Target: B3 domain-containing protein
Amino acid sequence: MTKKASSSSDPPTMTASLEGPTGRTWYTELEKTTTGVFFNAGWSKFARDHSLMEHELLIFRYNGCMSFTVVIFDKTACEKEDQDGGSANGGRKARLKLRKLAFGQNELGDQLKKMNVVEPSTRKHKKASDRSKSSPVTEKEKLKAQEAAHSFASENPFFVIRLKASHVYSSCRRLRFPMKFSRKYLPRSKTEVILRVSANSKTWSAAFLPHISERDERDRLSRGWSSFVCDNSLEEEDYCAFELVKSSEFLIHIFRVSKVQMRAASRARKNAKA
Model:
């Protein structure tokens, strides 16, 4: 989370990511004032790139970790898809007020309540520094996690990935799939996939985005992956085996690099069941 540090009179802000219909991500400040909560700096670019017009309807789905998916409907109530780049709507100081109805007793509501007391920092650096100070990972631990992951076997199609910092710390968490695997087993269109962990019956919905243009480097998981990372306390150097158990459902086997992390994940699962 990020808070303005320029003046004590400045309203508190957080950096939020917005995923548009094309799967691309925009960044904006989420600002809390005495009159409400607003998307501020960065919103004008999102509005301009999507040619937003007055009286159009936007639905924001909160994915956790200050990440939103935005669905856009035009004046005729038809969903606008794959629009990227357009008019000059959304001036330099444009901002969007969010209705209170959008915030219930959930993670987002809790985050907003904390905005007036949070210290200046970012989630990425905070998480990375926390682990390096409390439980530095040794080469032996890395090797043990690697060996365990590479010994995984299944009759179902699967692939194994070692998590990098960009997979778990970035405010725009995305996971690239091995192209050979995804082209053989997954559809070549945007698809909702289900993620679940072998030791947990909870499921997560994520967006699979195939390579469709020159600017996309590889097929990837986008919306929903961030929530999966947070809820399962994933860290850099962990390994995940993605086992395709149904046409659009993955059973994910996690091989953790840190024993401290294993205990934290175990506590999180117990709290979720309580």
Summary: The chain is about 25% helix and 30% strand. The two ends are 28 Å apart (CA to CA). The domain at 123-273 is CATH 2.40.330.10 (At1g16640 B3 domain).
